[in-house]
Design goal:
Layout lengths: L16 E13 L4 E7 L2 E7 L5 H8 L6 E10 L14 E12 L16 H6 L1 H4 L3 H23 L3 E2 L17 E3 L7 E3 L5 H9 L4 E9 L11 E10 L3 H20 L9 E3 H8 L12 E3 L1 H5 L4 H8 L3 E7 L8 H15 L5 E5 L5 E2 L8 H10 L7 E7 L1 H18 L10 E5 L4 E3 L6 E3 L14 H4 L8 E6 L2 E8 L4 H10 L4 H15 L6 E7 H8 L30 H7 L10
Parallel strand pairs: 6-9, 11-17
Antiparallel strand pairs: 1-2, 1-4, 2-3, 4-5, 7-8, 9-10, 10-22, 12-13, 13-16, 14-15, 14-16, 17-20, 18-19, 20-21, 21-22
The structure holds one RNA strand.
RNA sequence: GGGGGUGUAGCUCAGUUGGUUAGAGCGCUAGCCUGUCACGCUAGAGGCCGAGGGUUCAAGUCCCUUCACCCUCGCCA
């Protein structure tokens, strides 16, 4: 139907007879001549109808409107002098058609894909096919394609085998809430959509497929965020006979390749690494944004000997007094602004309050609470924080956990508010040596930080018995710009260690059999040492594309309430469908 | 489930202390215009002010309830 696309014609095509197809991006009717920008996903080309084309064609051209689909056959011509448009790739030429075909009309669109104003996101989602015609969306999906292809190529070159795993599996107790699929054949039983292909890829290792890769769709029925969708895509990898080092350097290589090909950035390898403990100490989070400084400073020792009751009591009770020096931030935050920061950490992280000082010109620490401190203590605080005039010092006195959360939240805000980094820059790093277990707030028992098959570091195996909280895992997270872009572990292949892990997690032998029986069986038939990683493809695309939410890099994303505004999924189903499944809805929601 | 933000014309938004007939730009419709490319000019149509209730002589504006979308805590790797 077409000989060329709307993005490829240039001076070298002048004089050629071509046929283009596309959408009417805009039309400019000058009475005599009519100009049309014809758009497809490759670009835009100007079509010029002048009276020579004949009355009939001119009339048809005059009737064209936004988003009509047309085909034009004609000659590529150089634009007259002075009318070249340097802003578009095809701006040196135009097509002078001899023939115009109207392939399809369009209703007046609710918004113009070629327009400059971005409509509200709910409208974009409802008319996603119009939104996807926009250049930005097309560029993003193309970026996603290039990243996916780059990943597949890299792993193919490294001898990996792409193996597909089932979507209909069984529900597992750990981790996120499952999306369930009722079985018609087995009334009352349910499949679960995979949260990740975790167990299957381990089985593949046991089966001898020592290098596995898959671009895998995953499902988690949890609340959404700007960087979280209920269905998302992982680049899933697993290898046998490897150490954590092998996995990390493999992914280092992938990131270096992608950064070079996609962003034109040279990454120096190996990528920097930081332990989990260090990340929590210095940044209060296991996925810190390392594009800027503003590290957390511990003041607990000074607090213990000061007269300010809040500080001393916290220190005496085993809590922590830690702070951040928001460099040059004194002017950026008024009393009201600081009240907002306080409200933010109290509301969102359960902090009790925010102590703060502004550093005045002479170096004096000014604050409503300053009178509670002796000059010597104030000096010590100032020294410890490396305070300089114009700085804003903020402190949180609380448990280690709360101070981490609150200071992490504050640090992120300072980073944005004080413009401490170039938003286009990228910082890659690894966080390693995660704890094996974290205290479960509800049950008071231990919960797996990753999943129950994560292997402890060899030197920490004894700690499983003596001090599980100190036990560190062979786990590693890839962090880019403060986002967890991926994470993985070396798995347990020793049945004895696996039993200890299950016991600590309070998973009874019965439950083990019921949920993981097949994996435990498989592990008993010659399981090789193995481990792997999964990268969040959507997040990688989001970060590489400099986007601020994950929906913009997914063709058909869901809203925060996990609905699809275009298809209106999820929807009610027929009574007959429910009967077949043996399902009865107890309290049907209205509508 | 908690906190916050937004919702006014098809779209993006303005709308003062509650005040009489709710505006702009874009888009749309019609007409004019051969070199525009955010074309220009003229005229016109277009409003359940998210929905429901209340206060008031009077509500886009104040109060209550509710819905949708977004950010966030919890939740989730």
């Amino acid at each position: 139907m077409r000989t060329h696309t709307c993005g490829e014609l240039g001076s070298q095509h002048i004089g050629q007879q071509v046929t283009l197809c596309g959408w009417v991006d805009s039309y400019r009717d000058h009475g005599g001549g009519i100009f049309i920008d014809l758009r497809d996903r490759y670009g835009k080309t100007q079509i010029v109808f002048d009276p020579d084309v004949g009355r009939e064609t001119l009339e048809l051209a005059r009737s064209l409107r936004s988003e009509f689909v047309i085909s034009v056959r004609g000659k590529v011509a150089a634009r007259p002098e002075g009318t070249v448009n340097a802003k578009i790739a095809t701006g040196a030429i135009e097509v002078r058609p001899s023939e115009l075909l109207l392939l399809n009309k369009s209703q007046t669109p609710p918004f113009q894909p070629g327009g400059m104003e971005l409509p509200n996101e709910d409208l974009r989602l409802k008319y996603r096919y119009l939104d996807l015609r926009r250049g930005e969306m097309q560029a993003t999906l193309q970026l996603r394609h290039r990243i996916t292809i780059g990943m597949r190529k890299y792993f193919d070159e490294h001898g990996f085998l792409d193996v597909e795993t089932p979507m209909l599996g069984r529900s597992t107790p750990e981790g996120a809430r499952d999306y369930l699929v009722p079985s018609r054949v087995h009334n009352g039983s349910f499949y679960a959509l995979p949260q990740s292909p975790q167990l299957y890829k381990q089985i593949l290792m046991i089966a001898g497929y020592d290098r596995y890769v898959q671009v895998a769709r995953c499902f988690r029925d949890e609340d959404l965020r700007a960087d979280r969708q209920p269905e998302f895509t992982q680049l899933d990898v697993e290898m046998s006979f490897v150490t954590a080092e092998d996995i990390i350097s493999l992914i280092d290589g992938l990131m270096a390749r992608l950064a070079k090909e996609i962003l034109g950035i040279d990454l120096s390898l190996p990528l920097p690494r930081m332990t989990y403990d260090e990340a929590m100490e210095r940044y209060g989070h296991d996925a810190p944004d390392l594009r800027f400084g503003l590290e957390i400073v511990d003041l607990t020792d000074i607090a213990a000997k000061c007269d300010f009751r809040v500080f001393r009591a916290t220190a005496d009770e085993g809590g922590q007094v830690r702070g951040i020096n928001a460099k040059g931030g004194a002017a950026a935050y008024s009393r009201k602004g600081i009240d907002e920061l306080t409200n933010f950490i109290v509301q969102d992280f359960g902090a009790k309050g925010l102590a703060w000082f502004k550093v005045e010109d002479g170096g004096t620490l000014a604050s409503p609470i300053a009178k509670n401190f002796s000059p010597e203590i104030l000096q010590q605080i100032s020294d410890r924080m490396q305070a300089e005039p114009g700085d804003l010092l903020v402190f949180v006195a609380d448990t280690f956990e709360v101070s981490c959360k609150a200071l992490y939240g504050l640090r992120k805000r300072f980073g944005v508010d004080l413009k401490l980094y170039d938003p286009k820059s990228k910082h890659f790093s690894w966080i390693v040596e995660f704890p094996m277990f974290a205290k479960d707030e509800e049950t008071g028992g231990w919960a797996a930080m990753h999943h129950p098959f994560t292997s402890p570091r060899p030197q920490d195996i004894e700690l499983l018995k003596t001090d599980p909280g100190k036990c560190r895992a062979q786990a590693y997270d890839l962090v880019i710009n403060g986002f967890e872009a991926g994470g993985g572990t070396i798995r347990i292949h020793d049945p004895g260690v696996q039993q200890q892990a299950f016991e600590l997690l309070g998973i009874s032998p019965e439950l083990q059999r019921e949920r993981f029986g097949f994996l435990l069986d498989a592990l008993a038939f010659g399981a090789p040492p193995h481990g792997g990683i999964a990268l969040g493809l959507d997040r990688v695309v989001m970060i590489f594309g400099g986007l601020d939410n994950i929906r913009d890099c997914i063709a058909f994303p869901k809203t925060q309430k996990a609905t699809d505004l275009m298809t209106e999924a999820p929807g009610r189903v027929d009574a007959r469908q429910l009967r077949e499944l043996g399902i009865q809805i107890r309290d049907p929601a209205p509508r």
